Amino acid sequence: MNNQDIQSIVQSVMAQLQQKTPGTPQTAAPTVHGNSGEIPDITAKAPTLRVPNPENRAAYEDMMKSTSARIGVWRAGTRPLTETMLKFRADHGVAQDAVLSYVDDAILQEMGFLCLESKVADKDEFLTRPDLGRLLSDDSIAKMKAEAPAGAQVQIVVGDGLSAKAIDANIRDVFTVCKQGLQAKGYQLGKDIFVKNARVGVVNCIGEILRPEMILLFIGERPGLGTAESMSAYLTYHPVQGTVEAQRTMISNIHKGGIPPVEAGAQIVSLVEKIMTQKTSGIDLKL
């Protein structure tokens, strides 16, 4: 077999292989424009009318505008739509993050809080031992006695509670309005206090030691699947160990989709006046 025969065989084999291999496209695939590669935040998507051909579309739209609850989400057979289920799981994740996260240290430093801690060791214990969230740690008690003056008329306390995100989102605005309003009314304010891993009852522990006339507590609410940024304000006259929830006055749902923080601040100043005048809070307060 000479070289010419070998070359002929090679060419024959190559021709057969080319017939079995898909050809290379002559033109490149079109470039997709306007795609950043980022997945859109499904939790930020505006509510969508899902029910096909609703009997009263106007009423349906009004309900959708008035609440963030999951109404009219429709279905595929007996199951929720894929996007509805994904949004549910995404909102649940946001709620879990709110419970398990901590308030931004930069905010606490910026606002000059005296930072204390409850007796809770970590988030797991915070969720399973609410009683420990109502008590200050021994180190925090010593720190508070050394740095916070006793006997103020209004002692302001901030606690992360069940949503650190609520404090991050609202505390600057509501705090500014409250402090300016209370100072304008001539009330003597104590040292601003922040308590990490706090429950509402921690004000009883603080009140027992500092003996203010009243305590105003801002604390993150338990997040729902509609918002993780809702904050509450609890106002308690002469809180001490043994003070119960019926003796507190409360404003809830403070966030941009509920009571705006600035508006809530004005309401709180008005409530403080009534509490200080009537010298009581909770169910005995005449509004």
How is this structure best described in words?
This protein is of the alpha/beta class and 287 residues long. It has a domain at 103-284: Ethanolamine ammonia-lyase light chain (EutC) (Rossmann fold, 3-Layer(aba) Sandwich). The protein is 41% helix and 14% strand. The protein has helices at 3-20, 57-66, 82-100, 105-111, 123-128, 138-147, 164-184, 202-210, 261-278, and strands at residues 75-76, 79-80, 114-117, 154-159, 193-196, 214-220, 231-237, 248-254. The strands form 2 sheets. A 6-stranded mixed β-sheet has the order 3-5-4-6-7-8, with helices on both faces. A two-stranded antiparallel ribbon has the order 1-2. Helix 7 (164-184) crosses helix 9 (261-278). The longest helix is centred in the middle third of the chain and has 21 residues, at 164-184. The termini are far apart.
Question: Approximately how much helix is present in the residues?
Answer: 40-55%
Largest sheet: 6 strands, mixed
Percent of residues in beta strands? 5-15%
Instruction: Describe the strand arrangement of the main beta sheet, using strand numbers.
Output: 3-5-4-6-7-8
Structural class estimated from helices and strands: alpha/beta
Oligomer: single chain
Q: Compute the gyration radius: what is it?
A: 30 Å
Brief description of this entry?
The protein is built from 9 helices and 8 strands.
Features:
alpha/beta; single chain; Rossmann fold; elongated; 287 residues; 8 strands
Secondary structure blueprint with pairings:
Blueprint: H1 3-20, H2 57-66, E1 75-76, E2 79-80, H3 82-100, H4 105-111, E3 114-117, H5 123-128, H6 138-147, E4 154-159, H7 164-184, E5 193-196, H8 202-210, E6 214-220, E7 231-237, E8 248-254, H9 261-278
Parallel strand pairs: 3-5, 4-5, 4-6
Antiparallel strand pairs: 1-2, 6-7, 7-8
